[in-house]
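Researcher: I'm preparing a figure for a lab meeting and need a structural model of a single chain. I don't have an experimental structure, so a prediction will have to do for now. The sequence is pasted below. Please return the structure as tokens so I can convert it later.
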Amino acid sequence: MVAEGRQRIDKWLFFSRAVKSRSLAAKLVVAGRVRINRDKAAQASDMVRPGDVLTITLERRIFIWKVLGTGTRRGPAEEARTLYEDISPPPAPKSEAIPDAIPALREAGSGRPTKKQRRETDRLLGED
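Model: Understood. Here is the structure written out token by token.
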């Protein structure tokens, strides 16, 4: 029994093209990567309705979507975009973004010895 104007979160994520399948949507919800109005969605059967704000975490990106309607099918992308309004903040420009990996800093010559340096050490120790 489905209340009018409400839809399961896994179906809604599938219809809005946030994920490729309903099973992936259910896994996303159970993993705690979806919030409905700032509360974690505990089950794939949690209901959403127009006006709810969803926070979805997908691969290093966070989407904040306001639900505008419920879907009836997984249609083309243009139809899927009518289900939500994207209120996510714009991503930071590449120049201002914090790099994922900060290169290690070390003094010159403080790493592994080169082949030439190892030969010199061997000659010094008499291990020719």
